[in-house]
Design brief:
Radius of gyration: 35 Å
Structural class: alpha+beta
Largest sheet: 6 strands, antiparallel
Number of strands: 21
Distance between the termini: 44 Å
Order of helices and strands: HEEEEHEEEEEEEHHEEHEEHEEHEEEEH
Strand content: 15-25%
């Protein structure tokens, strides 16, 4: 981060009356929680430029980290009093105070070294003796200074030059999500800008990188299974010659005495075709007549037994490819780093399937993965509930819980069909065919992959896709959402 922006933040920030309650971490993000305060201090030590900001957003899965125990032991119940920036480099210095059991005031300093590739968090006492640090550095790693508990804190020696110290307000995030000065549409609140910069730019870029990595992995799996499918198709073509191998075997067996040792073929009359045309049957010269006969019987039995197994493998492989493609579609709409703590007291876990609760009679569930589809269809749903899925296109399962066993309302049928169309490969199409039936007619074959089911007694409705957000908006006008 540019020095001038950090300096502007340090000059503007108001610490207020706070006491530190906890210190947690998620990857390269650290957060200080305060007693009875919604605001948290988030410290970004990412390689994309370190900075920190106060925010009420808690969108990352922060957790306790044993490596921070010493920090928390010292900082707990301390009060932040002042923050300043070094006059030569990108180092923020927080001052804390705490009254001990002997009614003595103890002072501590927290140094945030926000220097690209050398970010560090260093805690010292009032005399700047190091008590704890995120990265411990000895002379073996750095010849100019050591960062170890018990040593005096020394600033890093760098070639950094401050080119400009003043920010030209107002400031905003431009189209490229970069800080832009002297923009009339901007703000003079540096903390707000840092908050927006992280959640609208840094976090989005990281989510994009994670998505790309996961999608690349899934595409590699798809390519591997497509190669498997090609091989299975070739095996099936070979297995489909079972009738031919049987005819060869039986014709050779019927004319066994005519087979000569060392012959590479034999011409016989084909009793299986009208008019008994002649047919040339290849032989292996190195095999005896009996071995040639047994070879064709063996090929026949292998083709006969393998044909069914190969067909099953092809079906399962096609379904596996379908599931992988659906996972790719799900990943494209998913935020990996963000979680929603929806209900007070619940654990900080990522929301699973989507749900709309309509009064006490109906609930709509939309799966977001193959395993969730299985759970909704085979565990959660009851026989009188309704099930929706695109007929041709790959997609997710939509389940309409019928809690009071009523007739299916036309309006809800249409909404569920449109949701099934939206959460499918036909998301951007029109007039999408969607099958619907009651759960009692949906079955999962033994050994089938996650998300795979068969069904009957279905009807089909042709609809245009509808997003989950639009569905909620539409239903809220006529139904009591809970």
């Amino acid at each position: 981060m540019d020095y001038k922006f950090l300096k502007a933040w340090a000059e503007q920030v108001k610490l207020g009356n706070k006491r530190i309650k906890d210190l947690q971490r998620f990857e390269d993000q650290y957060v200080l929680f305060f007693v009875k305060k919604k605001n948290i201090l988030q410290i970004n030590l990412g390689n994309d430029g370190g900075f920190c900001f106060f925010t009420q957003k808690q969108m990352l899965p922060f957790q306790k980290d044993n490596t921070l125990n010493k920090f928390l032991e010292i900082l707990k119940d301390t009060q932040p009093e002042k923050v300043s920036i070094d006059n030569q480099d990108r180092i923020l210095k927080f001052e804390f105070s705490k009254i001990d059991i002997y009614n003595r005031e103890n002072r501590y300093f927290l140094f945030l070294e926000l220097i690209p590739r050398y970010q560090n968090i260093i805690l010292t006492d009032g005399n700047e003796k190091i008590l704890e640090c995120r990265r411990k550095i000895s002379y073996a790693e750095n010849r100019t200074r050591q960062i170890l508990p018990g040593l005096k804190y020394e600033k890093p020696t760098t070639n950094f030059i401050i080119t400009e110290k003043k920010v030209r307000f107002p400031i905003c995030l431009n189209e490229n999500l970069q800080l832009e000065e002297n923009n009339l549409q901007g703000t003079e609140d540096m903390n707000l800008i840092f908050e927006k910069l992280y959640y609208e730019s840094v976090l989005e870029k990281r989510n994009k990188r994670i998505k790309q990595k996961k999608i690349k992995n899934l595409r590699q799996q798809i390519s591997k299974k497509e190669r498997k499918l090609d091989n299975l198709d070739k095996e099936l073509q070979t297995a489909s010659k079972e009738k031919k191998w049987k005819q060869y075997a039986e014709l050779l067996n019927a004319n066994f005495n005519r087979i000569k040792n060392g012959a590479d073929s034999i011409i016989l009359k084909n009793y299986y075709e009208e008019g008994f045309p002649e047919i040339e049957i290849p032989l292996q010269a190195e095999l005896t007549p009996l071995q040639n006969v047994e070879k064709y019987f063996k090929k026949y039995r292998k083709a006969r037994d393998g044909k069914k197994k190969i067909a099953e493998q092809i079906k399962l492989t096609e379904q596996e490819i379908s599931n992988l493609e659906l996972q790719i579609a799900e990943i494209q709409d998913k935020d990996f780093l963000i979680y929603q703590n929806e209900e007070r007291g619940t654990s900080r876990t990522q929301k699973k399937y989507k749900r709309i609760k309509l009064g006490d009679s109906w609930q709509i569930f939309v799966g977001r993965s193959s395993k969730e589809n299985d759970f909704l269809t085979k565990t959660l749903a009851q026989p009188h509930d309704w099930w929706f899925h695109t007929r041709i296109f790959k997609g997710t399962h939509v389940v309409l819980r019928n809690l009071t066993k009523q007739e299916l309302p036309e309006e809800l049928k249409l909404i569920c069909c449109r949701l099934a169309a939206y959460f499918s490969k036909a998301k951007k199409s029109r007039n999408v065919p969607v099958d619907y039936t009651q759960i009692r007619y949906v079955r999962k074959p033994k050994g089938s992959p996650p998300g795979f089911v068969i069904y009957d007694k279905q009807k089909t409705l042709y609809v245009d896709p509808l997003s989950f957000r639009e569905a909620v908006k539409f239903l809220s006008k006529k139904w009591e959402l809970k």
